[in-house]
Design brief:
- By secondary structure, the protein is α+β, with helices and mostly antiparallel strands.
- It contains 24 helices and 32 strands.
- Strands 1-32-2-3-9-10-11-12-20-21-23 form an eleven-stranded mixed beta sheet, with helices on one face. Strands 6, 7, 24, 27, 28, 29, 30 and 31 form an eight-stranded antiparallel beta sheet that branches.
- Helix 18 packs across helix 20.
- The radius of gyration is 26 Å and the shape is globular.
- It starts with 19 loop residues before the first strand and ends with a strand.
Length: 771
C-alpha cells in the first residue's frame, strides 16, 4: 500500500498532451479538453470516435470504471474486503455477468463493433502503465476491458432501482402493523396522484383493494415461520417548454439527475463528433454513447426515473432436498449454481445460488421450505438496449428519437425530448411486464401460477405524449399515469418537486413572461418545499410551551424556503426527524430491520421508509400507526424532542456534506487526500434544488443533483451544464472538484459545442494515432 503522502503526486495523473497509439483506428483522433477539463473527441468515423471516448474515459475514470464493473458483477470484495460481501453475493445471485454476456451475443454487428472499439480505446490507455492512485492504494493492477463489461456497468448504475425495495419494505412491515395498515405503507404521493401524462393532471390516489393484497398476504403468512439496508436516494427532475412559451420561439429543455453523492460521480461530461453525428452530454464511465442526457445538434433528450414496476417478488415452496419447487399442483426443477467470492484479507466464501423458474432466491432459506425469489426485467429478459445507441445519435426528431429507443429495457425512464422543429415530448422508455396489479404491493405466491408475466407491454401501449396543449412537460419521479388497461406502478416519488416546478412555470405565464435559459436555470435553484409548508400549517394549533413553542413559532414565521443561510429550515428538519422517530417507535416499524426481507443489500430501515409516509397520514388524519395517540399529541412531543436537540447553526452549515471517495471509509488514513470539501448548499429531499438527507443519519446531505443542464434547442452555443465535482476522477487533478462551488450555488458553465471555440480555448490537446 502506498504512503499517504504520495497520493497527491502527479505521477498518478494521466498525460493529456503526448500522442498515444490506439489499435484499430482508421485515422488519427483529436482529443481536446476545455477549460473545465471536459473531453471533446473528434474523429473521422463513429468507431474511431468511440475508441477515442474509451481512451478519454480511461484517462479520467479508469479506477471508477473497474469499481462499477466489480460492484455490478460481484467482485468488489476482492478489492475492498468483507464490507462488500453482501452486495457481491446479491450480484452473483442475480448473475449480472452472465446476463451481460448473454446480451452482448444478441446485439447487432454494428453495436458489437462499437463496444469493441470502445474497449480498444480503454485498453490502449491501460497499456501505457500510468494508472490512477487507487490502484496503488489497493496494490492492484487494472484488468483488461472486455466489450460486455460496458453492459454490466450500465446494469450496475440502474441496479434494482424502484419497486423491489417497496415490496420488501411492506413484506417486512406486515407482521408488525398487520393487514389493516399495510396498504398505507406506499411511497407518499402528496395526496392525489399528480401525473406526468397528461402533463400536470391530478389522478385519483391509488390504493390497494383487498383483492390486490390478498395473494401477497397469503404467501407471506405461509412463509411466516421463517421470518426471524435500501435507503431512498435522490430522484430526478426534468421539464420542457414548447416554442409558444419561450422568448426565442425555440423549445427549452432542463433537468437534473439525483443520486448518492459518491466520488467519482456516475456521470461524466463529454463531446463526441464524427462524420455520422456530433453529440454532447453526460456519459457513463465504462460505456459508450449518451444514453440518458445529451443532444446531437438536432434533438435533445433527458430522463428521469419513471418508477414503473419492473421487478416482482415471489414466495416459493421447496421440497425437502431443494430440488424442486411447487407450481400449479406439481413440481418444477430448481437449479443450483456454485459461486466462490474472493474477499480481501479473508477466506473465500462459497455461495449456493438457488434459482427457480421465476428467478434466484435472494432471501430466506429454501432448506426450511420457502424462499423469496426476484424476477426482474433487468436480468430475466434478454436485453438489447445498446442497439439503441447509434440510432439515438443519428436521430433528427423527437419521433425518431423515441423510435430509436424501442428496444431499451435496462431501466425505466421518462424520456423527455425536444427538437429543432419545435416539438417536445415525453415517452416512458422501458420494458414493462404485463401482469396483475396484485403483483405490485407485496411478494406473491409463486406456486399458484396466477401471477406470471404475460409477455411485455407493447411499445405502442407505453405512455407517450408529444406537443401537449399546455406546451409544457414536467416529470420528477411522480406517477407516470393512472393504471388503466395495463398496470404500470404502485409506488412513485412524492410530486412535491413536480408541483413546485409547475408553480414556477405558472408564475411565468401569469406575468406574461416568455421563458429564457436563465428562467430555466432559476428553477434549478428553487429551494421552496411545498410539503414543509404543509407541516408549518399543520402545527399552527398544536399546544406546546417553552422551547417547544419557540421552535414552533420559528417554523410558523417561515416561508418554506430551505435556504442555506436560514436557520428556520433546521427547525423544520428537526421537527420532521423527531416526528419520524416517534412514529417509527409507536408503530413498531423501527424493528423492521430484523426481518430477513429487510436484509437484502443495501438493507431497509423502517425509520427511513416511514419518513416518506407521514405527510399523507397527517393529511388524512390517519392515526392507525400511532398506538392510540392523536396527531396533535405526537406533534407536540415531536416539538419538545426537536427543541431539546435543535442545532443553532444555519441550514447550510448542518446540511453541509463532504465529497467522499468510495475508498475513504475503507482506508480512512487516505481520506484527507481522497475526499474534498463541499460548498454549502440549501434545499432538501423535497425541493427542486434537491439535496437529500436521511433522517436517521442526521441532516447532512447525502444525495443531490449529480448534474444540471439547460438545452436551448437549436441555439446549441447557448446551452449550459454543471456536475457536482468535476470532469476528472483523479483526486490530485485540478479538474477533480473545480465545478463544485459553481454547482453548489445553482449555477452552470457553458456547454461548448462549436469546434472553433473549443479549439481556441482548449486547455490541452492530444492526438490518438493508429497502431
Amino acid at each position: 500500500m502506498t504512503n499517504t503522502r504520495d497520493l497527491g503526486s502527479n505521477n498518478y495523473l494521466p498525460d493529456l498532451t503526448s500522442s498515444a497509439a490506439v489499435p484499430g483506428l482508421s485515422e488519427a483522433v483529436d482529443l481536446s479538453r476545455d477549460a473545465w477539463g471536459i473531453p471533446h473527441v473528434r474523429a473521422a468515423s463513429h468507431l474511431d470516435a468511440f475508441a477515442g471516448l474509451g481512451f478519454a474515459h480511461a484517462q479520467d475514470r479508469l479506477w471508477q470504471m473497474e469499481a462499477l464493473l466489480r460492484r455490478g458483477t460481484g467482485r468488489y470484495a476482492e478489492w475492498v474486503g468483507k464490507s462488500a460481501l453482501a452486495g457481491d453475493v446479491l450480484a452473483r445471485q442475480l448473475d449480472t455477468a452472465g446476463a451481460s454476456r448473454r446480451d452482448f451475443a444478441l446485439l447487432n454487428d454494428e453495436t458489437r463493433a462499437m463496444l469493441e472499439a470502445y474497449a480498444r480505446g480503454v485498453n490502449a490507455f491501460i497499456v501505457l502503465g500510468r494508472w490512477p492512485v487507487e490502484y496503488q492504494i489497493l496494490d492492484a493492477k487494472p484488468a483488461a476491458w472486455v466489450p460486455w463489461h460496458s453492459i454490466a456497468v450500465m446494469r450496475q448504475i440502474g441496479f434494482l432501482m424502484g419497486s423491489v425495495w417497496w415490496k420488501l419494505w411492506r413484506a417486512a412491515a406486515l407482521p408488525i402493523v398487520g393487514v389493516a395498515e399495510i396498504s398505507k405503507l406506499r411511497f407518499d404521493d402528496g395526496g392525489d396522484d399528480m401525473l406526468c401524462i397528461p402533463p400536470g393532471a391530478e389522478g385519483e390516489r391509488y390504493l390497494a383493494a383487498l383483492a390486490d393484497l390478498k395473494p401477497g398476504l397469503e404467501a407471506l403468512l405461509a412463509a411466516r415461520h421463517e421470518q426471524q439496508d435500501a435507503e431512498v436516494a435522490g430522484g430526478s427532475n426534468n421539464w420542457a417548454l414548447g416554442p409558444e412559451r419561450t422568448a426565442s420561439g425555440r423549445p427549452l429543455l432542463a433537468g437534473d439527475p439525483h443520486r448518492l453523492l459518491e466520488m467519482p460521480s456516475m456521470y461524466a461530461q463529454a463531446h463526441l463528433a464524427c462524420d455520422d453525428f456530433d453529440a454532447i452530454g453526460l456519459t457513463v464511465p465504462g460505456a459508450p454513447g449518451f444514453p440518458n442526457f445529451g443532444h446531437n445538434g438536432k434533438v435533445a433528450w433527458c430522463v428521469t426515473h419513471a418508477f414503473v414496476d419492473i421487478h416482482d417478488l415471489y414466495i416459493e415452496r421447496f421440497d425437502a432436498k431443494v430440488e424442486n419447487t411447487r407450481f400449479k399442483g406439481g413440481w418444477k426443477p430448481v437449479q443450483h449454481r456454485a459461486e466462490v467470492i474472493a474477499v480481501r484479507g479473508e477466506d473465500s466464501v462459497a455461495v449456493d445460488v438457488v434459482e427457480t423458474h421465476h428467478g434466484p432466491v435472494i432471501a430466506g432459506d429454501p432448506a426450511a421450505g420457502t424462499g423469496l425469489v426476484l424476477r426482474s426485467v433487468q436480468f430475466a429478459v434478454p436485453d438489447t438496449s445498446f442497439d439503441c445507441t447509434l440510432p439515438v445519435l443519428r436521430s433528427s426528431t423527437v419521433h425518431e428519437l423515441y423510435e430509436a429507443g424501442r428496444e431499451w429495457g435496462l431501466m425505466d425512464h421518462n424520456l423527455v425530448a425536444a427538437d429543432t422543429s419545435g416539438r417536445i415530448g415525453n415517452r416512458v422508455r422501458a420494458k414493462l411486464p404485463a401482469r396483475s396489479r396484485a403483483n405490485g404491493w407485496l411478494p406473491v405466491p409463486g406456486w399458484t401460477g396466477e401471477h406470471e408475466w404475460n409477455g411485455i407491454v407493447a411499445f405502442e401501449d407505453m405512455p407517450c405524449i408529444i406537443d401537449p396543449k399546455e406546451q409544457a412537460i414536467v416529470t420528477a419521479n411522480n406517477r407516470v399515469m393512472e393504471n388503466g388497461r395495463h398496470y404500470f406502478s404502485t409506488d412513485s416519488m412524492p410530486p412535491h418537486r413536480a408541483r413546485r416546478i409547475w408553480q414556477r412555470l405558472a408564475e411565468l405565464s401569469k406575468a406574461d413572461v416568455k421563458a429564457t435559459v436563465e428562467d430555466m436555470a432559476s428553477i434549478h435553484r428553487d429551494t421552496v418545499s411545498v410539503v414543509a409548508l404543509e407541516f408549518r400549517d399543520r402545527i399552527r394549533t398544536v399546544a406546546v410551551e417553552g422551547p417547544a413553542a419557540a421552535l414552533r413559532d420559528r417554523i410558523l414565521d417561515w416561508n418554506g424556503d430551505m435556504a442555506a443561510e436560514s436557520s428556520a429550515p433546521v427547525a423544520y428538519a428537526a421537527l420532521r426527524t423527531a416526528l419520524t422517530k416517534l412514529v417509527a417507535d409507536e408503530s413498531g416499524l423501527r424493528s423492521v430491520a430484523d426481518s430477513p426481507y429487510a436484509k437484502v443489500p443495501p438493507g431497509i430501515f423502517g425509520e427511513t421508509q416511514i419518513w416518506w409516509t407521514i405527510p399523507q397520514l397527517l393529511r388524512a388524519n390517519d392515526t392507525g400507526l400511532l398506538a392510540g395517540a392523536t396527531w396533535d399529541e405526537v406533534l407536540a412531543q415531536a416539538l419538545v424532542d426537536a427543541a431539546a436537540s435543535f442545532p443553532s447553526e444555519s441550514w447550510g452549515d448542518v446540511h453541509r456534506t463532504s465529497l467522499r471517495h468510495l475508498l475513504s471509509a475503507i482506508y480512512p488514513d487516505h481520506a484527507p487526500l481522497l475526499d474534498k470539501a463541499c460548498a454549502r448548499v440549501g434545499g432538501d429531499n423535497d425541493t427542486v434544488f434537491a439535496t437529500g438527507y436521511i433522517a436517521r443519519l442526521g441532516m447532512r446531505a447525502t444525495s443531490a443533483a449529480l448534474s444540471r443542464y439547460v438545452f436551448d434547442v437549436g441555439d446549441w452555443d447557448n446551452c449550459s451544464w454543471i456536475v457536482f465535482h468535476g470532469a476528472s476522477g483523479h483526486p490530485a487533478s485540478p479538474y477533480y472538484d473545480n465545478q463544485n462551488a459553481i454547482w453548489a450555488a445553482g449555477k452552470m458553465v457553458p456547454m461548448l459545442y462549436d469546434w472553433r471555440k473549443i479549439e481556441a480555448g482548449a486547455s490541452s490537446h492530444q492526438r490518438l494515432l493508429p497502431s
